[in-house]
Amino acid sequence: MKTPPRSWTFGLLAALLTACSLKAAPDPNVQIQIAVNATLAALPTAAPAPTNPIPPAPTPFTLTGLFCEYNFCIGHPPDMAFYDVVAKQNPSSPVASMFTNGILAAHNNSLFIQLIWQHAPGATDPVFLIDLILEDGLDAPTGAYNLRLIRDMNVLSSPITTTASPLLPYGGVAGWVCGERAFAWKVYAPQAETFEPLLAEALARFRCE
Asked: Is the pTM of this model over 0.90?
């Protein structure tokens, strides 16, 4: 067998080298796109939304110790209940307290609480209604009225002494304006220190429309 001429061998090698040099280099844009697609494919998918979502538990709310009527609410001791004084004084009559004015009371063996309200458009000072709820010759404030801001209401209050009942010689009075109505609140109690906690309890749950 004849050995191919050396010139033919060199020619074949040159052709092979030329073919390798002419092979197209990878497109960097294509490589980047492939890498991006691979990265996106490796990302975890979002968990499917539950078909029956669990509703949030309702916030506990109790009506114990709360009076709501005549478009307002006010707190009171849980073992007492307000009654409509106007309706009780006229059991055979349809007359009762209403949105524009009224009187409520609650009592047990050791407390007496009274609340009155009156439609008073433009009023900002509840002193006129405080004067009305205090019994002439029986109730006496022990000093100047204390003014405090409770939520958006200016509340006037003072401890009182009273001779209305020998068993309940102490107490307190308070007044405030909410909307277009003025409110006055009063308590008779056996001890002077009972007044402030009861007022705080009443106003903590007070709302009006």
From this structure: no
